[in-house]
Amino acid sequence: MSMTPLFFSDEWSHHMKNHKSFLQAISHGGMILNLKICDFAKGEVRFVGRSIGSGQRRVDPDRLKSIKDMKIPQSKKEVRHIMAHFGDCIPNFSKFR
Prior knowledge:
Largest sheet: 3 strands, antiparallel
Number of helices: 3
Strand content: 5-15%
Order of helices and strands: HEEEHH
Structural class: alpha+beta
């Protein structure tokens, strides 16, 4: 079984509590971690097209290039498709839905 757990917190002490709870759950469940592929306490990570770190969640800089090169949407369906992926990056986007 493979999984990619990711969690972040605004405060370091809360973050460490999350790590401890996660590791206890792994141990209690009888699972093991492959430490060669694990990263802990990173300042920033890239995950599902986002760059997460320093209390912020942004579009991954590598993905911005594909957005800039994207053709202009020609229909409502195409606009909705784009907004489904990037709406959370637009301030007050929920007011426009």
